[in-house]
Amino acid sequence: MAPITHVPRVVLVTGGAGFIGSNFIRHQLSTHRDVRIVNLDALTYAGNPANLTDLATDSRYRFVHGDITDKTLVESLLSGDRVDTLVHFAAESHVDRSIDGPAAFVRTNIDGTAVLLMAAAAVWKGRRDVRFHHVSTDEVYGSLGPSGKFTEQTPYDPSSPYSASKAASDHLVRAWNRTFRLPVTISNCSNNYGPFQLPEKLIPLMISNALEGKPLPIYGDGKNVRDWLHVEDHCRAIDVIARSGADGATYNVGGDNEMTNLAIVETICAALDRLKPDPRGTPYRNLIAFVADRPGHDRRYAIDAAKIQRELGWKPVETFHSGIAKTVSWYLAQADWLKASGANTRTRQGLINR
Ligand SMILES: NC(=O)c1ccc[n+]([C@@H]2O[C@H](COP(=O)([O-])OP(=O)(O)OC[C@H]3O[C@@H](n4cnc5c(N)ncnc54)[C@H](O)[C@@H]3O)[C@@H](O)[C@H]2O)c1
């Protein structure tokens, strides 16, 4: 296991009102007693302050409503709050929405990341006791055939406006490290799942629709393969990278759970049949409906996470089996949250006329 080389004391989290960011903030505050968190979030449709209501009385936590493209604001937070660590989640994150409206993805994911880098380089000028951690995706690597896995050396080959914007942001982060010597780390991870994910994404969408007896839409033939990472395993990985990762290094983070979309949906249906059977006794899998595929849909992603395991001693705690059971139970217990979050996010996006 690598030694700790950086101890975050004040962390500026961007996009902390979203799915992974809110889980990360909760993880940080429950794991490290002496850390302070400033959460900068624009509260787009994807940001929900209710994800963090339990922290409202924690004096170590502060929420700032603002945009990462506002350089004056970012600089004032970095210097005024004496931030020594920036963990950058804020993004437009839904592939289908990037097909309908790519401009927002360019603005937040590329311009926003550039603003954060410029602000950090200006405020932290020459400091080595600081760190900028950039959270990215395995989608930057494009699509795999039936075998092989993405390593940190896999060439970038993004397919969607979303993944292209994330690829651009990764390049900017590396450039600021090499050109301006800004201390950075990058993680590229697979599909996350767990509490507080909006029901525009596969797993909460399927749970939400199943509970309402609505069709469970599966793109194409349902054989697209993704690796699934429990969000708490992801938070642990970011924590270890921020503390022990090598300056300028990239780490792939995966859950070692490759599954087809169809298998995921069948697993969710089986869990719901057990935990909350349909009142008429109909198996939830009868609701599965195949729909037109996503344009440019990548066939398979798989992560080789050997580097973070070997160099930093991280490995996932959850298997898909344990993680999905916890996740389905969480959504069942949070029916109000699910309903409120689903109000504007469950309609199909990203279908283009070819
Ligand atoms: N969810 C996944 O499976 C996954 C996988 C790999 C990588 N990632 C990356 O992890 C990060 C977080 O993903 P997520 O699923 O939690 O996203 P999310 O869509 O749930 O949350 C994004 C958050 O960013 C905020 N935001 C958006 N634009 C902003 C702006 N201009 N200024 C300030 N805040 C803004 C939103 O309000 C929201 O709170 C993203 O960078 C994403 O690319 C996600």
Note down, in words, how this protein is organized.
This protein is an alpha/beta fold. 39% of the residues lie in helices and 16% in strands. The chain has a domain at 10-197 and 228-257 and 300-317: Rossmann fold (3-Layer(aba) Sandwich), CATH 3.40.50.720. It contains 11 helices and 12 strands. Strand 5, helix 5 (161-180) and strand 6 form a beta-alpha-beta unit. The model has no long low-confidence stretch (mean pLDDT 95). Bound molecules: nicotinamide-adenine-dinucleotide. Nicotinamide-adenine-dinucleotide binds at residues 14-15, 17-21, 41-44, 46-47, 67-69, 89-91, 93, 108, 112, 135-137, 166, 189, 191-192, 198.
Q: Look at the structure and name the CATH superfamily of the domain at 10-197 and 228-257 and 300-317.
A: NAD(P)-binding Rossmann-like Domain
CATH architecture of the domain at 10-197 and 228-257 and 300-317: 3-Layer(aba) Sandwich
- Amount of helix: 25-40%
Give me the secondary-structure category.
alpha/beta
**CATH topology-level fold name of the domain at 10-197 and 228-257 and 300-317:** Rossmann fold
Q: Which ranges are low-confidence, i.e. pLDDT below 50, for 5 or more consecutive residues?
A: none
